[in-house]
């Protein structure tokens, strides 16, 4: 009876050791895929590769952490800074070309610029402190319509995303990264 119990315990121990070894190997393989995807100079390409790995289910254990790169603005800001696309000081030189002469990159999409009230941008870290206007926009009723075509810069690095329905915009695919030295037209 003792030999049978010892035999079963030995089989259970071997199975547990093998499963732990397989799990460790899988974690190391996922980490290697993530690291290889992040070995890029362009943060947009990094996010695209990570989204592909996540969609393919190849980084299941790390998926929740990686998804934050394109859904959480703070994580995206830290990611861009770590990739060398971090923010420049507010005094960074703006492009010398006037806004109305600036060539379009063809990139259109959704970018969170802060909160708007009825008569203008709301101050604070989630409002007007997120943007730097090249020329102050007109305030008053209909100010969003008046601000169309005006030039601005972001205060912190962000991601330009494809457009999506309200409530789903923060999950829209990333098109490119946007840094404070770039000129944007609303």
How is the secondary structure organized here?
Elements: H1 2-38, H2 43-55, H3 63-71, H4 73-82, E1 131-133, H5 143-146, E2 151-154, E3 158-161, E4 174-178, E5 184-185
Antiparallel strand pairs: 1-2, 2-5, 3-4
Low-confidence stretches: 86-97
Instruction: Give the helix/strand class.
Output: mainly alpha
Indicate the percent of residues in helices: 25-40%
Distance between the termini: 80 Å
Instruction: Write down the secondary-structure element order.
Output: HHHHEHEEEE
Largest sheet: 3 strands, antiparallel
Shape: elongated
In total, the number of domains comes to 2
Number of helices: 5
Q: Strand percentage, roughly?
A: 5-15%
User: Taking Cα atoms only, what radius of gyration do you get, to the nearest Å?
Assistant: 24 Å
Could you tell me the number of beta strands? Answer: 5
| Mean pLDDT rating | 75
Strand numbers in spatial order across the main sheet? 1-2-5
């Amino acid at each position: 009876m003792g030999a049978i119990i010892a035999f079963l315990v030995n089989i259970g121990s071997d199975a547990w050791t093998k499963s732990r070894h397989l799990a460790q190997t899988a974690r190391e393989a996922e980490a290697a895929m993530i690291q290889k995807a992040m070995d890029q100079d362009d943060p947009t390409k990094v996010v695209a590769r990570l989204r592909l790995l996540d969609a393919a289910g190849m980084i299941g254990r790390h998926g929740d952490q990686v998804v934050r790169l394109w859904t959480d603005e703070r994580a995206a800001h830290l990611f861009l800074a770590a990739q060398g696309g971090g923010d420049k000081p507010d005094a960074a030189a703006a492009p010398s070309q006037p806004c109305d002469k600036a060539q379009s990159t063809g990139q259109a999409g959704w970018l969170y610029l802060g909160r708007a009230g009825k008569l203008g941008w709301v101050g604070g870290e989630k409002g007007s402190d997120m943007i730097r206007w090249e020329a102050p926009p007109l305030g008053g009723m209909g100010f969003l319509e008046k601000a169309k075509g005006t030039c601005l810069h972001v205060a912190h690095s962000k991601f330009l995303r494809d457009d999506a329905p309200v409530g789903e915009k923060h999950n829209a695919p990333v098109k490119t990264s946007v840094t404070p030295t770039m000129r944007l037209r609303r």
